[in-house]
Amino acid sequence: MKRIRVIPSLLIQNGGLVKSVKFKNHTYVGDPINAVKIFNDKEVDELVLLDISATAQRRAPNFQQIREVASEAFMPVGYGGGVTTLDQVKALIGIGVEKVILNTSAFDNPKLVEESARYVGSQSVVVSVDVKKNIWGSYKMHVQNGSRNTNLDPAEFALRMENAGAGEVLLNSIDRDGTFSGYDTVLIRHVSEKLTIPLVALGGAASVDDFKMAVLAGASAVSAGSFFVFQRPHRAVLISYPGQKELKEKLFLQV
Q1: C-alpha radius of gyration, the chain, whole number
Q2: pTM to 2 decimal places
Q3: What are 79-106's pLDDT values in tens digits?
Q4: Residues 230 and 236 sit within 8 Å (Cβ to Cβ)
Q5: Under the phi-then-psi rule, with left for phi > 0, alpha for psi from -120 to 50, and beta for the rest, what region is 235?
Q6: SS3 content of the chain, % helix, strand, coil (to 5)
Q7: Sign (positive/negative) of CA torsion 65, 71, 73, 79?
Q8: Is 184 a catalytic residue?
Q9: Number of domains in the chain
Q10: CA torsion, points 69, 75, 81, 87, in degrees to nearest 10?
């Protein structure tokens, strides 16, 4: 039996916790430390922190805030946003981050993936692949918070990153982000078939059943944002996480 990881992804903008819809219309949802404390109580598997303002402002990560969050977290923490150098990767690992997530820098400087994997090990290097369909229905990878179209096929890029030393791919559907419309299982299958490293699916989750559909499409783990911070149907802010019994019943899969 295989235990599937279920990972909240938290967006940080100017120090606060926000949530987006299709990478736009960011809504403030609280303080990151408070969210981490709630997730501690819920026995969350892992946590992803993505500082979208660091990327947008082309600045270094806020190491002080990341240190504070990592010190409060009882689970492994992955961090992405503004990471452009090996020294920053080393610093993040040094303050308690388990996995460093690279997005724009992985595209602009693939050698950073290679160097990081050599220094901290592939298991601590994650490449985030943000994907949007173009007007012809083809999947294209975007960087810089989804604002820059690379015109690359996400599966080809993900394979390139695996060959460079990445130990995991975080696959995010821009079109499904914050929509509660379910994961893009076609996209998950398209990318996962190319890889031997784990793929974490992100974007669109509305239920634990969606988690299982993503895994059946080829994801090794699942992540979500709005699902963990909003109560539907009115999108009232409520930090939550499915009960361990429900996750165990639905996400222990025979392998």
Answers
A1: 17
A2: 0.95
A3: 999 999 999 999 999 999 999 999 999 9
A4: yes
A5: left
A6: 35, 30, 35
A7: positive
A8: no
A9: 1
A10: 90
